[in-house]
Design a protein that fits this description.
Oligomer: single chain
Order of helices and strands: HEEH
Shape: elongated
Radius of gyration: 15 Å
Largest sheet: 2 strands, antiparallel
Helix content: 40-55%
Structural class: alpha+beta
Strand content: 5-15%
Strand order of the largest sheet: 1-2
Number of strands: 2
């Protein structure tokens, strides 16, 4: 499937990120019927938090990608 990343900086509350992730998950999930067959589209979300200076774009992306495959 397709993959994409959303990066949010200066996060002070983990619930803010969890709420946004749930909003994305709901928007991308849907059901429809085709030829009398129910088709469900879902998505998985991987979240990574990093607050240390050594967490650059690449390391955060790798961390989130690993979390996604565990989801």
């Amino acid at each position: 499937g397709d993959e994409f990343a959303i990066f949010i900086s200066h996060v002070h509350e983990t619930n803010f990120v969890l709420e946004r992730a749930e909003q994305v998950r709901k928007k991308l999930s849907m059901e429809f019927q085709k030829n009398f067959e129910l088709i469900k589209i879902t998505c998985s979300v991987g979240i990574c938090f990093g607050s240390k200076p050594e967490f650059d774009f690449q390391s955060l992306y790798v961390c989130a990608d690993k979390a996604l495959y565990r989801a």
